[in-house]
Amino acid sequence: MPSGLLSTDLYQLSMMQAYLREGITETAVFEFFVRKLPKTRNFLIAAGLEQCLDYLETLAATGAQLDWLRANGQFDDAVLDYLAGLRFTGDVDAMPEGTVFFPDEPILRVTAPLPVAQLVETRIINILHFQTLIASKAARIRLAAGDRLLVDFGYRRAHGADAGLLAARASYLAGFDGSATVEAGMQFGIPLYGTMAHSFIQAHQSEEEAFLAFARARPRRLVLLLDTYDTERAAMTAVHVARRLDTEGITLHGVRLDSGDLSLHAHAVRAILNAHGLDAVTIFASGGLDETEIARLLAGKAPIDGFGVGTSLTTSSDAPALDCAYKLQEYAGIARRKTSEGKATWPGRKQVFRAHDNGRLAGDDLGLADEPLPGHPLLEPVMRTGRRMAAAPSLEAIRRHARSELARLPAPLRRLDGPTGYPVVPSPGLRQLAAEVDRRIASARSSAARLVTRWEHFPHGADVGVRGIGPTLEAALEQAALALTAVVTDPAGVAPTDEAAFSCRGDGAEPLLYEWLNALIYEMAVERRLFSRFQVIVEGDRLHAQAWGEPIDPARHEPAAEPKGATYTELSVRRSDGGWIAQCVVDV
Amino acid sequence: MDMTRLERIGDVAWRMPRQGRMRVDGVIYGDRALVAAMDDKVGEQVANVASLPGIVGASYAMPDAHWGYGFPIGGVAAFDPDRGGVISAGGVGFDISCGVRTLLTGLTRAEVQSRQAALADRLFRDVPAGMGQRGRLSFDEHELDAVLEGGAAWAVARGFGLPEDLALIEEGGQAAGAAPDCVSAKAKTRQRGEMGTLGSGNHYLEVQEVAEIFAVDAAKAYGLAVGDVVATIHCGSRGLGHQVGTDYLAEMVAAAAGYGLDLPDRELASAPIESELGRRYLGGMRAATNCALANRQIIGHFVREAFGTLFPAARLALLYDVSHNTCKVEHHPVEGRLTRLFVHRKGATRALGPWDATLPEAYRPVGQPVLIGGSMGTESYILAGCATSERQSFSSACHGAGRSMSRHAALRQWRGRAIIDDLAERGIAIRSPSMRGVAEEAPGAYKDVRAVVDAAERGGLARKVARLLPIICVKG
After folding, report:
1. Would A476 disulfide with which of A417, A468, A508, B141, CB 3.0-4.6 Å?
2. Which chain B residues touch A518 with a CB distance below 8 Å?
């Protein structure tokens, strides 16, 4: 399956470039969790961890990928060098696959340098989301089917080859007995099941001939498909064939129904088989089934021994996506949280502590990883410094774990209809940390609002607004001058070599800004000069300034637009949060 | 724009009823989509202009109107000196007498196509474009005063262009009443080395093909046929005009209270026409107008020379030269009486209807050519003033496409090189000193000029004569 460095979003690489530029590369903690359950889910089954660990353990750039990124031209050398040496050297803690979990509970935690922890987000969500989605659907089907045989028939309708294969794995670990997908047998050792297609029957002169031919070619665990023409007649034919095969030492194992009223047909076929002493022959049903239909059939006592489930399983058709996320919880040792409306997260490294009552799930505490809480902690260390801590558990072991998890579900959670609540309670420690983070964010917000010396442009119909912001009036006027230069060219490309002096007068701070910018525009026009450094002194209604710059070099500066004049439009010089803002629109 | 304040009074005309401080109604031209897309500031500015003393008729906004300085760009307002009317530096704008000149080349697309790259290079070399470029001419102060008095007529006398050009320029190429001594020394200094330069921003020099004719009579009168190639210059009064605008704006802001003007926006700074400051501004503004007319005359000469080197037989005849940042004295009927008015057109073109006595004889039966610049790489239009123009808008029409996106937003969306490559693929050669400038002027950052001229025609402001497609664009 395609998985590697570029199995990521552009924005991860964009952020990486910015992180590297700013040196923001300390340890980050991200957690994957589901925000809320789909309407038709009471619980979820964690799945996909093994593929995540495979991905992380083998993450490295190929030469071809680096060449392509370089040729693409969007990324600087810092990113390319970083990617060339990139390995995942972080830690992973996770719930074992097959574990039942609920909203807000992390099932995987990544602890790694921020650029890497961020880079892997896309693929980790991609893996965990899909398998968790399918395993959770499969678990419901298992609950509906009791201990009857369940086989995944879904590959052909899966959304792609990777999905078809991983759906076989996810459904198997959540309690299916096997899959029709041969690749799943090879990749994961999943037991394979299958009968024949209608086309096989159609290709023969008669059903009887087809049954005999198939039985002789594939005598083991022989299952005959009955509904190509007339199901009940086919059942009679199967009885004859079974007798004949018996003499050849071949035993009819089962029959399969794939259309019509499965309950009616199952009853009729069962009666025919039993009437002819074939009580041991099983009936297997398929065709548009899901957990609701299976529950309905079984409630009607349909004598069906096994089910093949396809489309509804591999596409989780009633709930085709989970509202899940992989969010930053801690950076550089400090807890982080997101407070967006409806998408707020609990901060910090978290652990899920589960209580049991009489062998049944009784409630979870969502606490901090190092918080001493009663209950069984569900997240376990699985990877340290980029290496698995133990060999991958077998899929059989995972499946056993999932089975025991399902057995622990209390009765309300086993229901297929209607949402049922399950208590997940944030711990006192977690609530306290969240409050601390909120206070920190609020104070950072207010200090960010306190002025940082800077300039910016603001839009105006045909022209452009210049704005200078600084702790003093002078600083704001200097920044506004920089913004003016930036209308023409990037100030960073203007060498502050020559000096010019300015003096102007204005009846108040606003006329002073107008005069100051126009003095600069005049100097720029007459001396054909650009400035990139300014020192302003304001004394009463007078402004004295020095500016440093160089002559315009059209080839190098590529002047974009020529300022004609500062205007009174949006002209404003005012105090703000302990500093000054000076702005106006410049006609270009 | 909030349409709830507007009342539909025609196919593409909307009335903003007088309220509050407004002395007259506002009238905005444009189809519903154009008007709805206008910034709310346009409505605010139309209303503010309507509140100025001595305004008559209505405060108009053309279909390409956008947020300007005090006046909307695309704003038209006429003031009666006898009713305390004012003149406003913001109502003319910083680029005094910025305008468009179109020359007929007598060449066909096929002829130009074969020398496209060479012609583009030649024009880019001969017509200095962009900031920091020096013109090829320099003047002493005395000569500059002659420019400011003589306009295009001065240029012709100095050998730039032909005497017959003058009749094909508004006001005969020379604004009367220009007063060079009302232009500051700073403004004159700022013009040093700027004569004969295009400037930057939305200014350009284009070689265009006539792609479509809408009005056969007017096209014939203007000398246009499908497949003909024309050259169009869009530029203004350069540093001198900008400085005149800057100087007088500050002065009018400071003086407004003294004149008893209670302005809703400082940028509307004005002075009574019959005041010392008003008269001085008028003299300085007209001098700047002559600077612009001379500048376009000189550039027109350079264009002729450039064509001459590649097409020795070509004789480029001037089609027309119009300005769209102006304040002109005109006589229009007000309440049934022909009245002397000061008509401000900020980003709007005069559009005289047929039989106006000031039109060149050849154009009288069809009306004045109205030259509409599109954005770089997109189509331009030639319209003709029509009989209804005067009644609709004191004989005014739109001037261009108008931006739909800020420079800032355009920079985020486009790269200059990609735009040039894209236009090259469509057969349009771009020459510009600045990739960032090209990105800021991306065709997509402008409104659809077609919708604008359609609205002008439907509104009876001017009728469509010809559609032009660019072949070469030299961008400042």
Report:
1. A468
2. 246, 250
Residue B399 among the catalytic residues: yes
Per-residue pLDDT at B401 exceeds 90: no
How many domains would you assign to chain A?
Answer: 3
Residue type, B193: G
Residues A530 and A485: beta-carbon distance below 8 Å: yes
Task: Render pLDDT for B47-77 as a digit per residue (tens, 0 to 9).
Answer: 999 999 999 999 999 999 998 889 999 999 9
Asked whether residue A425 is domain-assigned, the answer is: no
A/B interface, count of CB pairs below 8 Å: 140
What is the Cα–Cα distance from B105 to B102, expressed in whole angstroms? Answer: 9
Which residue in chain A has the smallest CA separation from B193?
Answer: A526
Q: Which of B250, B253, B407 sits opposite A561 (nearest CB)?
A: B407
Task: Tell me the residue range of the domain where A227 lies.
Answer: 194-286
Residue of A nearest to B440 (CA): A560
Cβ–Cβ < 8 Å for B97, B293: yes
Closest Cα in chain B to A505: B250
pLDDT in tens, B38-50: 989 999 999 999 9
Please tell me whether residues A107 and A123 are part of one structural domain.
Answer: yes
Mean pLDDT score of chain B, rounded to an integer? 94
Instruction: Give the single-character DSSP code of B165.
Output: G
- Name the stretches of chain A with pLDDT < 70: 1-3, 418, 445-451
* Residues A34 and A175 reside in one and the same domain: yes
B430 contact A CB<8A: no
E strand segments, B391-451: 396-397, 429-431
- DSSP string covering A365-428: EEEETT---SSEE--EEEEETTEESSPPPPHHHHHHHHHHHHHT--HHHH-SSS-----EEE-H
Tell me the CATH number at A114.
3.20.140.10
Each residue's pLDDT tens digit, B335-393: 888 999 999 999 999 999 999 989 999 999 999 999 998 888 889 999 999 999 999 99
Identify which of A463, A522, A562 has the shortest CB distance to residue B200: A562
The Cβ of residue B138 has, within 10 Å, a number of other Cβ atoms equal to 13
Identify the residue with better confidence: B188 or A418: B188
How far is A176 from A170, CA to CA, in rounded Å? 9
Residues of A with CB under 8 A from a CB of B: 457-464, 488-489, 507, 511, 514-515, 518, 521-522, 524-526, 528, 551-555, 557-562, 564-569, 571, 585, 587-588
Backbone angles phi, psi at B29, to 5 degrees: -100, 140
pLDDT band, very low/low/confident/very high, at B1 (cuts 50, 70, 90)? confident
Which of chain A's residues have a Cβ under 8 Å away from the Cβ of B435? 558
Res. B219 pLDDT band, cuts 50 70 90: very high
pLDDT at A3: 65
Facing residue for B267 by CB, picked from A489, A511, A567: A567
Reported confidence tier of residue B446, pLDDT bands at 50, 70, 90: confident
Interface subset of B 385-414, CB within 8 angstroms of A: 402-403, 406-409
Same domain? For A106 and A135 the reply is yes
Q: What are phi and psi of B72, to 5 degrees?
A: -70, 150
Q: Among the three residues A286, A317, A346, which one is the final residue of a domain in this structure?
A: A286
Cα–Cα distance between B138 and A503 in angstroms, integer? 28
Structural domains in chain B, CATH included, are: 3-83+98-404+446-475 (3.90.1860.10)
| pLDDT tens track for B97-129 | 999 999 999 999 999 999 999 999 999 999 988
Say if B437 is an interface residue toward chain A (CB within 8 Å).
Answer: yes
Q: A478: distance to nearest CA of chain B, Å?
A: 21
Of the residues B246, B266, B268, B420, the best mutation for testing chain A's interface (the one with the most A CB atoms within 10 Å of its CB) is B246
